[in-house]
């Protein structure tokens, strides 16, 4: 079985080797290939940090061209397909508007010439003057109608495109699984894809969007139309040469080597070291601002530590500016001075024209305003082109991210339908091993055990021995690297995770505390029953959380305050957290248990997993919860109905289970019933004796 996502990783090597061997970038076809290749740092094995500006090199220009060919047009088509007619109108209006300034200049020149002529001849033709002024006013009125229609139409088209982008971004976030997010390369891809989405929606920096391409086109048309006007009043080629010189000076700084220009980009980290420092700077800022950290910041006197760390990280990020060589500074300053000089000599043709006896006031004013428009628009064109160049690669990241397949998803042809077996789920693990990405030591090592349908397994052991990791692997939240895991007689990897999850309920160790009502916090356990007050109340009662509901001001409808939620303050809007009601850790635990029970009462649930569900509860409450778990695992006649796995440090509770797995250093060192393990007199027996 070949997962396309796994196949992306060697692509880094294959892409760079293609480029190193001097082979053509044209061979890179997929959005992912192009995106990855654009991140290669010249002369280094490192990749550019996510979000870094791509240098304007020939290789990157070819990659951008490839990306436009393969992805950008498809993306534009998708985004604007909601309003095809309005999109055509938007394009037409944009192009028409780009011709308007030239017309305006021409029309005004006609009026000036007419006034000059009438003044010099001293015969005033009022009807003609009024006609010219009237047509100018009508033209302006039509212009404003076209403008307001274009803005209104563009708003509708862009709102739809923004909705699609934001929706797809959310869709992608909820669709992808945990292992995909832990893959560093995938994280970078998603980060750049988010940058595109944010800037497209107008919530981020700048305005990278497919509209930049349209902007480039309309700026070009505007420049060409002004050049046409300039040529019509220009008398010699000298004027044109001087004008071309001025234009070159506008574009010159853009094609300078990145190494010179990047020295001035002090706020966009470029090297991995700067990126690391920028990260640290953000973490320190977060510690200073976050309400969650405030008590410990005060208690442990972290104020100075935060400030000095932030300051040193800030200096590292800005180091490149300090380390700038004097020759680089003088070179950059020289370029700017030269640029200004070239821009200044754009006045030479104007002076030449002024001296020419045939020049009219209208042509002079037309010439001057057109020259200004050409220079101004050329600068805008240069900036927009640079932005569009970068956005091509962010769009490639976006396109690649929409094609990402969750890592745990099996190939369609390999998929096996999940079938329930009598009594619950049967599990057979053979030599399972798993190492977290970026870690040297495996969290699971050769884990083997068999659990029959309907049995209860308690996983016990020391901190860090791999209990929670094993639970996440069994729940198909995390993957494993080696070994075999059979569930109901089939390889777990062949089940569609979403189908498999429909048969499980769990309380994870780091369960979620949603910044939402208590009702929703419980109801998410079974969304289809979210509207049923009876089912929610039943789950709350089973988890003995009814006492909490009674103390809350709005009962089930009380919004709970979640420490993970950082409210965004909008103007005129009360921050959401201030509406929340805080709960103790034990109370939150009961809510999480109620959520799991809400799901567990569904008939299709075959496996219940609880990772230290009662660690914050008192002894009586713990016993009551485990009584309920036991009840849920049986039919009313006492026959086994569901398999239960729970992780606990309370060995008095663990002894209730049919089987106990003692975990040490990532592996199951002892497996059997409580009595069998006591008789073995091994690690479990020692731990048990210590606990009583
Ligand atoms: N997301 C992660 N990334 C990297 N390493 C991790 C991650 N989660 C856990 N580990 C490491 O894996 C090992 C097993 O962790 P695990 O959480 O499974 O232990 P545990 O037995 O449940 O511990 P505890 O009893 O403290 O809850 C530990 O060494 C831990 O540091």
Summarize, please.
The chain has 692 residues and is an alpha/beta fold. The chain contains 27 helices and 10 strands. The site of adenosine-5'-triphosphate has 12 residues, from helix 18.
Spatial strand sequence of the major β-sheet? 6-7-8-3-9-10
Round the Cα radius of gyration to an integer and report it. Answer: 34 Å
Please report which band the strand proportion falls in: under 5%, 5-15%, 15-25%, 25-35%, 35-45% or over 45%: 5-15%
Low-confidence stretches: 1-23, 203-207, 257-269, 569-574
The ligands bound in this entry are: adenosine-5'-triphosphate
Number of domains: 4
Query: N-to-C terminal Cα separation, in Å?
Result: 49 Å
What overall geometry do the principal axes of the alpha carbons give?
elongated
In the CATH hierarchy, the third-tier topology of the largest domain is known as: ABC transporter transmembrane region fold
Largest sheet: 6 strands, mixed
**CATH architecture tag of the largest domain:** Up-down Bundle
* Number of DSSP-assigned strands: 10
- Roughly what is the average pLDDT, rounded to an integer? 81
| Secondary structure category | alpha/beta
CATH class of the largest domain: Mainly Alpha
């Amino acid at each position: 079985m070949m997962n396309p996502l796994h196949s992306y990783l060697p692509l880094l090597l294959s892409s760079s080797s293609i480029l190193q061997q001097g082979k053509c970038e044209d061979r890179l076809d997929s959005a992912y290939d192009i995106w990855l290749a654009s991140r290669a740092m010249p002369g280094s094995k490192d990749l550019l940090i996510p979000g870094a500006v791509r240098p304007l090199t020939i290789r990157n220009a070819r990659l951008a061209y490839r990306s436009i060919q393969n992805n950008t047009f498809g993306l534009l088509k998708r985004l604007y397909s909601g309003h095809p007619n309005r999109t055509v109108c938007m394009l037409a209006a944009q192009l028409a508007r780009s011709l308007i300034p030239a017309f305006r200049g021409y029309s005004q020149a006609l009026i000036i010439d007419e006034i000059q002529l009438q003044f010099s001849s001293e015969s005033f033709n009022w009807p003609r003057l009024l006609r010219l002024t009237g047509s100018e006013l009508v033209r302006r009125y039509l212009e404003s109608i076209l403008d307001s229609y274009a803005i209104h139409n563009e708003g509708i088209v862009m709102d739809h495109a923004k909705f699609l982008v934001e929706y797809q971004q959310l869709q992608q976030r909820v669709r992808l699984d945990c292992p995909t997010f832990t893959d560093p390369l995938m994280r970078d891809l998603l980060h750049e894809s988010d940058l595109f989405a944010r800037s497209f929606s107008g919530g981020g920096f700048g305005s990278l969007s497919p509209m930049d391409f349209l902007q480039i086109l309309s700026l070009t048309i505007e420049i060409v139309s002004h050049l046409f006007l300039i040529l019509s009043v220009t008398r010699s080629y000298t004027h044109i040469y001087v004008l071309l010189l001025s234009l070159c000076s506008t574009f010159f700084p853009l094609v300078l080597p990145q190494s010179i220009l990047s020295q001035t980009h002090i706020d966009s980290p470029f090297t991995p070291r700067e990126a690391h420092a920028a990260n640290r700077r953000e973490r320190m800022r977060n510690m200073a601002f976050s309400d969650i950290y405030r008590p410990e910041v005060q208690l442990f006197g972290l104020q100075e530590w935060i400030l000095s760390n932030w300051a040193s990280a800030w200096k590292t990020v800005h180091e490149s500016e300090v380390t700038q060589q004097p020759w680089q500074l003088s070179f950059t300053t020289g370029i700017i001075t030269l640029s200004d000089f070239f821009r200044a000599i754009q006045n030479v043709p104007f002076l030449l024209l002024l001296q020419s006896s045939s020049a009219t006031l209208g042509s002079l004013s037309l010439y001057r305003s057109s020259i200004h428009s050409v220079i101004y628009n050329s600068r805008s064109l240069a900036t927009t082109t640079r932005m569009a160049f970068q956005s091509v690669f962010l769009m490639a990241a976006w396109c690649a991210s929409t094609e990402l397949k969750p890592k745990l998803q099996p190939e369609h042809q390999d998929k096996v339908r999940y079938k329930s077996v009598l009594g619950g789920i049967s599990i057979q693990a053979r030599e399972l091993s798993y190492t977290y990405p970026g870690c040297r030591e495996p969290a699971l090592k050769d884990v083997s055990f068999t659990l029959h349908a309907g049995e209860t397994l308690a996983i016990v052991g020391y901190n860090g021995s791999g209990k929670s990791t094993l639970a996440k692997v069994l729940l198909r939240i995390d993957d494993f690297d080696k070994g075999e895991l059979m569930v109901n007689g089939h390889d777990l990897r062949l089940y569609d995770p979403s189908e498999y999850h429909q048969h499980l309920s769990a309380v994870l160790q780091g369960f979620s505390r949603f910044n939402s009502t208590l009702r929703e916090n419980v109801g998410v356990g079974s969304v289809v029953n979210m509207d049923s007050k009876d089912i929610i109340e039943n789950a709350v009662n089973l988890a003995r959380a009814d006492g909490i509901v009674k103390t809350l001001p709005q009962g089930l409808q009380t919004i709970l305050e979640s420490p993970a939620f950082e409210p965004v303050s909008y103007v005129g809007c009360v921050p959401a957290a201030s509406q929340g009601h805080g709960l103790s850790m034990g109370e939150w635990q009961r809510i999480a248990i109620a959520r799991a029970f809400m799901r567990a009462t569904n008939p299709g649930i075959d496996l219940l997993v609880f990772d230290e569900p009662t660690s914050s509860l008192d002894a009586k409450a713990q016993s009551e919860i485990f009584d309920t778990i036991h009840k849920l695992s049986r039919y009313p006649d006492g026959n086994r109905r569901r398999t239960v796995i729970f992780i606990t440090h309370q060995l008095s509770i663990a002894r209730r289970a049919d089987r106990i797995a003692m975990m040490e250093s990532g592996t199951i060192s002892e497996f059997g019933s409580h009595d069998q393990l006591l008789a073995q007199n091994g690690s479990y027996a020692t731990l048990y004796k210590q606990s009583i």
